[in-house]
Recover the amino acids of this structure.
């Protein structure tokens, strides 16, 4: 005998259509998306999301970091809302689902509640966090970090992109600087649905990731100072080659990550050479080392070792070396009671599932500092993400949203 609501499911076709519609905004050049935060494309995606939320009967609030909160009222006005969301901003060569599945999956939960005429005790707030990716304005999860009190609003507004444009100015330019104080909202709980962005669920043949933890991260921005000189006429012995120092640091980061297996990662995704002319040895080289591991002690030891050895490498070559931590969070343990709610939901729906530690960072990592929080994951093809070829199946999207639906229903409490 099934319990009331046991077989409730979201409308998977409507979810998939919404994902494909959103993917048309800020299209990439290879089937993915380039909807970077605070660009005109981001503004366009925000407007579409707001129109969908309002069509679903929700009211939109926007805070001073540009994060969007669409509220479906609950029956108990005194009850704190259940927040459900992720992010709509993408990498420059991002996929169609990273972040977007979590925001539109949350919207689909509300659309399904409306279809079924279900009322909940707690309000439900569908959330689009600004600047999760940190691709344009470091660090990642900037807006949720301000919300959780990790960063000040001034710090966030002052963050600059590679063109020297600031977060605050760009937020005003696209017209999405909200009036709400960041972090004034209090949450009963926060759920985030996200693609795994790694290969484990697909390889294990599991449909749902019951996310218990998220690994910690350091983003270490190195500025190496060499001597600009002619690449042809400058004898090797006279060179102060910042590019050579950079390459030796890259090799060292790889070695440090490999000797901390299993579970550690380390690499570099962004480098800026100045003057970046093919026949001038670089005067300065700026790059960000990204290291991560679920083990707190390892994370801090890796940072210390990389900074010390980078200084030695630069001293040996005579290159100046400055380093600034431009992103950080410690390993996160999600709220066990909510993790079990997710597990029960997957079991009730008959979806295969397994515990998983998130390899990528998410806004949930900061939400966990201020409210009971957990995540739900679905597989992605070949574990590929932060690549335009990122792909999931409609079935995986629907399964993730179904589990989100049941978990949110349990926490928001159906009013008979
Ligand atoms: O860097 C991350 O893990 C996330 O994609 N912002
Ligand atoms: Mn993401
Ligand atoms: Mn991402």
């Amino acid at each position: 005998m099934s319990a009331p609501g046991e077989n409730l499911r979201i409308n998977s076709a409507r979810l998939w259509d919404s994902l494909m519609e959103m993917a048309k905004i800020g299209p990439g050049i290879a089937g993915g998306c380039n909807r970077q935060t605070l660009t005109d494309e981001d503004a366009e995606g925000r407007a579409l999301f707001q129109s969908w939320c309002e069509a679903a009967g929700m009211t939109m609030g926007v805070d001073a970091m540009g994060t969007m909160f669409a509220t479906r009222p609950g029956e108990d006005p005194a009850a704190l809302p259940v927040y459900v969301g992720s992010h709509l901003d993408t990498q420059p060569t991002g996929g169609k689902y990273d972040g977007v599945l979590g925001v539109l999956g949350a919207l689909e939960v509300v659309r399904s509640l409306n279809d079924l005429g279900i009322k909940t005790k707690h309000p439900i707030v569908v959330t689009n966090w600004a600047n999760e990716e940190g691709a344009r304005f470091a660090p990642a999860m900037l807006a949720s970090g301000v919300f959780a009190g990790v960063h000040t609003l001034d710090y966030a507004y002052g963050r600059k992109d590679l063109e020297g444009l600031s977060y605050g100015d760009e937020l005003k330019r696209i017209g999405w600087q909200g009036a709400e104080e960041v972090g004034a909202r209090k949450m009963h709980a926060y759920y985030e649905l996200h693609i795994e962005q790694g290969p484990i669920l697909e390889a294990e043949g599991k449909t749902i990731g019951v996310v218990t933890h998220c690994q910690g991260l350091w983003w270490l921005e190195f500025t190496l100072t060499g001597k600009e000189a002619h690449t042809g006429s400058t004898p090797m012995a006279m060179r102060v080659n910042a590019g050579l120092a950079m390459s030796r640091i890259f090799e060292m980061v790889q070695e440090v990550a490999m000797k901390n297996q299993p579970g550690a990662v380390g690499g570099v995704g962004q480098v800026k050479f100045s003057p970046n002319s093919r026949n001038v040895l670089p005067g300065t080289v700026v790059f960000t080392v990204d290291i991560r591991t679920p083990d707190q002690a390892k994370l801090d030891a890796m940072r210390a070792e990389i900074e010390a050895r980078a200084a030695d490498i630069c001293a040996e070559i005579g290159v100046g070396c400055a380093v600034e931590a431009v992103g950080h969070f410690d390993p996160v343990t999600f709220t066990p009671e909510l993790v079990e709610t997710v597990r029960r939901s997957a079991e009730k729906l008959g979806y295969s599932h397994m515990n998983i530690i998130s390899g990528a960072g998410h806004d949930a990592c900061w939400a966990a500092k201020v409210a009971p929080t957990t995540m739900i994951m679905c597989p992605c093809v070949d574990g590929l993400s932060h690549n335009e070829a990122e792909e999931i199946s409609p079935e995986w999207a629907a399964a993730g949203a179904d589990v989100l639906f049941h978990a949110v229903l349990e926490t928001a409490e159906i009013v008979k």
